[in-house]
Amino acid sequence: MTGSDGELRAAVAAGALVAAQRRAPLLQSVADAARAIFHARASSIMLFDAAQAELVFEAVSGEGHELIGRRLPKDTGIAGWVLGAREPIVVEDVAQDPRFAVGFARSVGYVPRGIMAAPLLLDERALGVLSILDRPRPTTPSLDELDLLGVFARQAAVALDLFEAVRHVERALDGRGELAVVARLAAALDGLEGDRRGAASSLLAALEAMLAAPS
Amino acid sequence: MELPAWSVGPDDALPRTRGADWPSALDRAWAFGDGRAAGVRVAVIDSGIDPHHPVLAGPLQRAVAMEIGPGGATVVADETGDVSGHGTACAGIIRSLAPACELTSVRVLGPDLTGGGDALVAGLRWAIAEGHEVVNLSLSTTKARFADALRALVDEAYFRGAVLVASAHNMPVDSWPWRFASVLSVGSHALPDPETFFANPRPPVEFHARGLDVEVAWAGGTTIRASGNSFATPHMAAMAARVLGAHPGLRPFELKTVLHLIATNREEGP
Question: In CATH, what number does A3-171 get?
Answer without folding.
Answer: 3.30.450.40
